[in-house]
Amino acid sequence: MFTKEYWDQNYSQPKSMDCIGNAKQHTVYLRSFFELELIDVSSIIDLGFGYGYLFQRMLKTFLPYRACGIEPSKFAFDKAKSRKLKPVDSTTLTLYNESLQQWCQRKGSPKTRFDLGICTSVLQYVRDEDMEEILKTMSERIKYLYLTVPTDKELDHQIEQLDFHDTYALRRSRAYYRNVIGKYFTNISSKVWESKYYFDEESSLFTDLLYRS
After folding, report:
1. Distances (CA, A) of 26 to 46, 58, 80, 121
2. Do 101 and 134 touch, CB atoms closer than 8 A?
3. Sign of the C-alpha dihedral computed for residues 5, 59, 48 and 107 taken in this order
4. Is the pLDDT reported for residue 212 higher than 90?
5. What are the DSSP calls for 131-147, one per residue?
6. Is the confidence at residue 164, as pLDDT, over 90?
């Protein structure tokens, strides 16, 4: 899985893909959100950075002192690594060619904790039996998560309207994702989730949202 064949099939025109062609818009939105809420982002991790377009933009926008990226596909990893991902020398950047499951199995430490995690179009490839443990570990290591994942209806839309069929993606409902992610994170804005491990009803900056259905 995630060999050159996968990337040729799913990303033959990468600039037309979400989080690639519009990477700048994603970063502008996220920077504005955190600036408005006076939240400092000094460390970033990208959990499946693919070709590295969005990851590179995030590093350039936030200029974190510490950053980490993981990508299970050797083909995509090498492509991204050949580009200049780190915009400034002051950022300590670590890259791992490994899966999300493997990263979760790494021993937890201060170096595995991050202010912001990027996880775009990744969870649809995670098996049901691995999902809970992965999200639990992510919540213990990441304060804020920027997350996108296509639901079954969105995958249908891609096939019918965009003539794009991701045969590798697992089909799950919106209710499934909201339920399983909601055990460990609180949705505080579009695509932005707050870890329940670090924040609760007393410490969250977004207490008004905790009571919404």
Report:
1. 14, 9, 19, 14
2. yes
3. positive
4. no
5. HHHHHHHHHHHEEEEEE
6. no
- What is the distance of C-alpha 27 from the center of its chain? 12
7 close to 76: Cβ distance less than 8 angstroms: yes
What is the DSSP code string of 24-82?
HHHHHHHHHHHHHTT----EEEEES-TTSHHHHHHHHHH--SEEEEE-S-HHHHHHHHT
Distance, CA of 28 to CA of 178 (rounded, Å): 25
Helix, coil or strand: residue 87: coil
CA terminus-to-terminus distance, the chain: 37
Which CATH topology does 4-211 take? Rossmann fold (3.40.50)
Residue at 52: amino acid letter: G
Helices and strands counted in the chain (H then E): 8, 7
When pLDDT is cut at 50, 70 and 90, the band that residue 204 belongs to is confident
pTM of the entire structure?
0.89
In the prediction, which pLDDT does 211 show? Answer: 47
